[in-house]
Give the backbone structure.
Amino acid sequence: MANIEQIMDTFINRTIVFFTFDVNAGVVENDIVDGFGFNYMKALGLSAPCKFDDIISRSMELGYATIVYTVGKSIEQLSCDGLLSLYENGENYIESCFYSADNKRYYRLVYILKKDNVTGHVFAYVICVDTTEVDKMRLDSLTESLESIKHKNDEIEDKLKIINCMAKQYMYIYSCDLETEIYHEIYAANSNVEAILRENGNINIAVKDLCKLIIKPEHVPSFAEFIDLSTLKERLGDEKYITQQFEGLYTGWLEAVIFPEDASSDGSFNKVIVAVRDINNEKEKETKLIYNSYVDDLTKLYNRKMYNENLIEYDDSSIPKNMVFISVDVNGLKVVNDTLGHDAGDELIKGVAECMKDCFHQYGRIYRLGGDEYAAIIYISQANLPKLINQFNDRINGWHGNLVDSISISLGYVTQNECNDKSIYDMTKIADSRMYKAKEEYYAQKGIDREGRQTAHAALCALYYKVLKINLTTNIYQIIHMDAGEFNQVNPLRYSLSEDIIKFAELGNVAKEDREKYLKAMSIAALREYFKEGNKCFSLFYRRKYNGGFKTVRLELVPAGDYTEDNQSLFLYIRYIE
């Protein structure tokens, strides 16, 4: 039990009021007045004698007892019944703190309960002390502690959010100490990996087990090198993280990432985070993108991009003796598109592709170069080549579609034996030439525009001294017509559009004053953007070398019939201006 005399000694210098009352009777007999004569009961609108519970209720109603924090019991518990109950439970010292909004001061109420031996009633000794300065310091300290706890909780919450976010992307997340070589699990999905790694352990042992039980053998060396702690700091260097892709026996493709944990200002660190995520979907998309970039969507043959890259493989290298280059073009595709519709035209294009695949696929590669143009690079002996070509022609002649009854193609081919000292580009030129000759013979036999085509071609050649079909996408061109003396200005093997444009100017064929304008206007990149914007014609005036002097010419570019944004095919015309 608390000693009232000792408590009074403790609070004597700070006591505002001191009074006693009979708790059993519940009545305060005298006014509560402080040392300055201030009557607290009168301030509350009460007068002695009055019930103690009324003093508590009135204090709370007027805002004199707004609880800020509690030491012991709250004011609401300090009714007469509450005090008696506390005393019966062995408590005779009770404190309660409150804040007065009127004077903005903090107070502490101290109750000492003592039973009178004569009456058997419990008496309360009530002391009210002004503890503004002391409690303010305590509150500030408490507030500071709470803020510190809140800050730490915020940090923990942020880390949990990060882990939760990473968990959506990563299957496993581990913290690894580089000095002890011990790892600790931060997050792990339920799988074979978790069964091996457990919640913590030695990283070197874990890696050996993973390599043996989880990772495909061909990926083991690279993964072991990636996770090697002895070289990790050196490999990380100034990088924020390093990654490694590998394939698991049961998990498919995975990607591991390692990054420093809590690196200091100078970049040093002793711990790293190792996280692993599933990249099977990404690998599938990547594979599909690569496939789509090299394969024609309509026919599933290789496209022009693959064709150009494959030709480079033979550049400056020997061509196998049994190589054959085949050039194929569909006859009458435009007529089919115009009369039967593009669905019929697509059926025709796919029909040619199927016939080529049936006959040539096992011997090499087949390409759709765009529109109605195809090519094949095959490997077959001279003795067996005629039989294969006959099989292809029979396959073409026997083809029938749902929308189109038959196919007609023009074909030209050349063997390596005919081109001992020539490049692959020479072979393509010869095969194309033979294919176009076959096409002319086809139209001649059919009587289709036999004289009109020749007359129109002659008129075109009379008006323009140079006619080219160019492709901005592939950066190549085909000569339709060129005046004598022009061929020595181009590369007869490669037909690189950008190279020959620059070479043409460098050889002095463009007047010095017009050279910069010419090169800027004829930039392949600039022309690509120009036509992608929907423009239908491009023209350029400049002066070019002519009979020892310079003469003004007009260059015109217009989209060809097979022009698309992915296959920027155009006709280039140049004529002299009188």
